Amino acid sequence: MSRLQVWVRDAEVLRTALLEAGIVTGPTSILQVDAGDGFEIEPVNRTGGSEMEAETSVNEQATSVGEKDIDAEVLRAALLKAGIVAGPTSILQVDAGDGLEIEPATTTEGSEMEGVQSQPVVPFVGMEFFSDKEARVYYNSKEQNAKSSIGSRSRKCNSIRKTDCKARMVVVKRAEKWVVTIVDLDHNHPPLSPNSLRFLESHRNVSDEDYELIELLHNNNIPTRRIMSVLSDLYGTMRNIPFTKKDVSNLRTSMRKRTTANGDMAETIKYFQELQAEDPSFFYSMELDSDNTVGSLFWVDGASKEAYKKFGDCIVFDTTYCTNKYNLPFAPIIGVSNHGQTVLFGCVFLKNEKIETFEWVFETFLKAMDGKEPQCIMTDQDKTMEIAIAKVLPRTIHRRCMWHVHRNASTNLGVLLNGKEGFETDLKSCIDNSLNEEEFDASWDAMIDRHELCGNKYMQHLYDNRKKWVPCFFMDYFFPFMSTSQRSESMNKLFKDFVHPADLIRNFIFQYEKLAQSCLDRDDNQRFITVQTDPKMWSGYPMEEQDSKFYTRAMFEEFQEMLYRATKYKTINGPEPGSYFVQLILDDDNKKFLKNICVIAGH
Question: Could you tell me where this protein is found in the cell (predicted)?
C-alpha cells in the first residue's frame, strides 16, 4: 500500500474549502473522510494524543455530513482547488489537531494503511481521474502549468499558436475513469503573469453559484457591466473574478437561446393556463394565422381587471414602446389611478399593425373587460389604429399623444426649430395657451405669418389634424395627467428598463409581470401615505384644509400647487379708465417683486 501524508498547519484552509463547497455548514473539530465509491465525512470527538475512535462507514452512492448528501467529485474539486491534495484520492483521513492531516491512500475494508511514500507532485502516465473536469482542475492547479492554456478536444488538435508550445497532458476515458496517456511539461515560453492567467480559456471557470447569480441578475434585465460590478464586489476586485465580461455576455446569449420560437410560444400558453388555474379572472386570447400558428396574443390579470373597473375612464394604447425577439410590436394598455400612479390594464403582442389586427385587439379588450368601453383613449399617430377605434369604439373620444406629436415635429421641423429665432417659443405658446378653437386659429395664423411658413407642408399637416391633438379641443373630456408628454415619456423609459428587445416572449411576459407588481407597489405606497400621514398646509385658507379630507395625497398636492399659483396674481388700475394690470408676484431671494403679464382693457 502507498500513502501520502500532507500536513496543513492552518486548519482554516481546509475548513474554508469545505464551507465554500457547501460540504460542511459549521465548525468542525475532527473530520474523518472516507472515500470508496463515495465519501463520508463525520465530525469526530477526540482527546489530545489519542487515536480517532469514531466508526467510519462507506456510502457507495454519496457522501454525508449528518443528513447531507455530497457528490464525491465536489469534495475532490474543493480539495484540489484549495491546493490541499495534488491528485486523485481514494481514501482521505482528515485529522484536526494543531493542524489538519490529509492522507490519500488505497486500502481494503478493515485494513490499516501502511508504507508511507511521497506521491509525485507532477502528472505522470497512468495517473487516474474520476472525471475530465477533475483532470483539468488538477492540471491547472499546478504552478508549472500556469504558463499556458489547456483545452479539451475529442480529436487531435494543432499546437498552440505563436510559440508552438508542445506542453500538454492528454487524458483518455477508459472504463469509468480518465487515464493520463501523454505528459509533456516542457514549455518554450515565459510564464504568464497572474493577472493574465484569468484570460486563458482553461483558467476561466463559472461556478454553479456564479451561474445562478448571473441568471438571477439576467432575469431582472441587469446590464452585463452592472453584473460585473456586482461580481467585483463579491470577489473583492474585478481582477479576482475567474472569468471575463465576454464570458458573462456569452452566458446571457445562451440563456436567451434555450428555447426555440415554437417552444417559446408553447411554454407561454402553458404558463397562461397555469395562471388561469390559479386566478380564474386571468384572461388571455390568441389570434391564429391561417397555418394555425399564434399571431397576436392578448392577456390581462385579475388585478388589472379590477383596476379598470375603477380607473378605466381613460386609457393609453401605444405600440411604439419596443419590440421583442420576433419583432412583434408590444402594446401595453395603461391608465392612471386616483393616486396619480400608472396602472396596467392589459398587454398585447401584435403580429402586424393592420386595421383588422387592431380591430381584434379592441374587440378582445372589451370582451376581457365585460364590455365596458373607455370614455377616452390616447394613442400614437397611427392612421390604421384610428380607423379601428372609430369602428370598434365609436363612442370613445380619441386623442393623439402629445409626446409623439412633439417627437415627430422635432424630426420634421428640426431646421425650423433651430434656425428661426422665436419659432419654437411661438409654437409652444400657440399649442399650450390657447383656450378655445378661435384663440388657437388666431395664434396659429399669426405665427405662420410672423415666421413666413405659408406653404410649409408639415405645418399644414399639423393644422389639418389639430382636432386630434391640440389641448384646447379636449377641454371638456377627461384625460387625467396625460395632456403633457411626461407620462408617456416616463413609461417609455420604464418599459425599456424592464424588458429587453432580445427576450423571448415567455421572458418578456415575466418582466412585464415584474413591472406590473412595481406599479402596484407604488400605488400601495401612495395609499399608505394618504391614510397614515397628514399633509402640510401653507395657505391658511379653510378650503385647503377641507379639500385635504377629500383628495388622495397626490391629488391634494396637485390642488395645492394650483392654489399656490392662482394666489400669486394681483390687479391694479391701468392708465386708461376701465383698464387693469395683471401682475405676477415672484420671489427672488425672499424679496417680493412684481411682473406685469398682461393688460386688460375695459370697454
Answer: Nucleus
Residue 447 to residues 117, 412, 461, Cα–Cα distance (Å): 99, 17, 15
Distance separating alpha carbons of residues 333 and 321, to the nearest angstrom = 11
pTM beyond 0.85, yes or no: no
Residue 563 near residue 555, CB atoms below 8 Å:
no
Largest pairwise CA distance in the chain:
123
Report CA-CA distances (Å) from 564 to 480, 544, 598. 20, 11, 19
Distance CA 35, CA 57 (A): 9
Distance in angstroms (rounded) separating the CA atoms of residues 244 and 237: 13
Phi, psi torsion values for 4, nearest 5 degrees: -115, 130
- Residue 108, amino acid: T
Q: Cα(34)–Cα(56) distance, rounded to whole angstroms?
A: 7
Cβ atoms of 113 and 57 within 8 Å: the answer is: no
Distance, in Å, from the CA atom of 556 to the CA atom of 548, rounded to the nearest integer, reads 6
pLDDT given at position 547: 93
* Cβ-Cβ contacts under 8 Å for 303 (sequence gap 6 or more): 516, 520
Q: Which grid coordinates are listed for 452?
A: 413666413
Using DSSP's 3-state secondary structure scheme, residue 94 falls into strand
Rounded Cα–Cα distance for residues 523 and 554 (Å): 10
pLDDT for res 201 = 58
Return the pLDDT at 49.
39
C-alpha 173/C-alpha 275 separation (Å) is: 47
Per-10-residue mean pLDDT of the chain, 603 residues long, equals: 39 66 59 45 42 32 42 66 57 46 42 38 78 74 47 47 70 87 75 58 70 85 87 83 82 69 75 92 87 83 94 89 68 91 91 92 96 94 91 95 85 79 88 92 94 90 93 91 65 70 76 86 93 90 92 94 84 78 65 51 48
H or E element that contains 65: strand 63-65
CA dihedral 140, 145, 150, 152 (to 10 degrees): -60
| Cα distance between residue 382 and residue 318, in whole Å | 9
Kindly report the three-state secondary structure assignment for every residue of 275-302: HHHHCCCCEEEEEECCCCCEEEEEEECH
CB 305 within 8 A of CB 366: no
Q: What residues contact 377, with CB distance under 8 A and at least 6 apart? A: 314, 315, 316, 317, 389, 393, 396, 397, 398, 399
- CA–CA separation, 9 and 553 (whole Å): 66
Give CA–CA dist 584/595, Å, rounded.
5
Closest CA to 34 of 86, 111, 99, 98: 111
Residue 90 CA to residue 92 CA, distance in Å, equals 7
Give the count of beta carbons closer than 10 Å to the beta carbon of residue 509: 20
DSSP secondary structure, 119-183, as one string = PPSS--TT-EESSHHHHHHHHHHSGGGTTS-----SS--PPPTTT----EEEEEEETTEEEEEEE
